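cron nightly-structures :: item 1 of 1
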Amino acid sequence: MKCVCVQYVEAIRKLHNLYPDWKPKRTVYLTFVPDEEVGGAGMACFLSSELYKSIPGIALALDEGLASESETYSVFYGERLPWWVEVKATGPTGHGSRFIEDAAVGQIVKLASKALEFREGQRRILHGEEGAEDHSNCSHAVAAKNRKRNKKKLGDVTTLNITTLQAGVRAGESFTYNCVPPEARCSLDIRISPHVKPSSISEMLDTWCRECGVPQAGDGNGNGNKDSKGKQSHSLEWKYLQHNGQQGHALTSINRKVNPWYGQFMDTLTDMGLKVEPEVFPAATDSRFLRLLGIRALGFSPMRNSEILLHENDEYLDESVFLEGIGIYVNLIKKLANYDPDTELA
């Protein structure tokens, strides 16, 4: 994304040098905001600022995409819904020499096993048996290779990863290794495909908690404890750590009749002799905040024939690819900044 930021700046500079008297019909805004990797607080703050509110309206937003390992670029019209979830288990404590039933750690381990089974099922849908043992690169790259075989793409499946596991009774800087902890937690990073209803994922988590946890004791009169929703309270419960208030998917239409801006974007690249394929972004970008406001947003990184190396050691981009991308942005910005869909449809 740092490459994309610089490509935008260089494209604006090149436009000014090539066409010093050019005045676009539309205003072009460049935004650079922080915290995309930790939930997107930068974009969220910008969209609630007086500066954003002073803008008369946004016709189209462009955001980052992914590098392509082939000649074909990807344009992203939506992305998977990111949920960060914490699961907390509570249970009896006691000395480690005893058989403590319904211990918190055991509950978390059972739920973690179900989570890993779900993960494996989704991985097999994505890779199939042929790619089941290919762990040589991240899923982004493996998914890109699968496109050539007309298999599922990463954005078509729901990923789930266990990102933290916490348990133990602390004693200063260490732990008491002979004490069964009364509490255990784990966090899950879930990216929900647009082909899946988010409600089905929450129902799945509810089911896991019921199956792996223990109903909380009642008041002795047959009245079990209830949670805030009036449901039976369990020793294993989950909550959102962060989902940005987004409970459902938000997509940008790729129907030219509904969204002529998408047509103009695609036609501009096609006229340059470039191949482009629409798809769902596998992770999360700041575009999700824009789409929730009803703003058309497309994710695009002009980087073809490049290995996908995001967050890996020695992440780089070839100079020739970088420079080619600047030229692509020059044409895109020039075309889009002068585009009037009302004139096109008249």
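cron nightly-structures :: done
The domain at 2-80+250-345 is CATH 3.40.630.10 (Aminopeptidase).
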